Amino acid sequence: MNEYTIGQVVFSKSGRDKGRPFIIVKVEHPYLYLVDGDLRKLEKPKKKKMMHVQKTHDVIEDIKTKLEEGIGLKDADIRKALRSYYPSSPKAINEEA
What we know:
Blueprint: E1 8-12, E2 21-28, E3 31-35, E4 46-49, E5 53-59, H1 61-69, H2 75-82, H3 90-96
Antiparallel strand pairs: 1-2, 1-5, 2-3, 3-4
């Protein structure tokens, strides 16, 4: 019964990164290895216990395929995939006007 999968989007429930979205790059029960392409890059994923993340049902298939096949995945791909999970900040809205 593995409830987590590579390429799945999760949110941190605790720690300094609370509320941040991450993508799972490795599952090693009871730990998950998470990246966001910004603070946590592919070469140094965050090791976090499963109980400290909020699971979503979203799996980014493109990222999952690249991870499983070892195809050149970049931090920019991770950031782009997670962009829609960040709430838009008022500052960004003001800059666009």
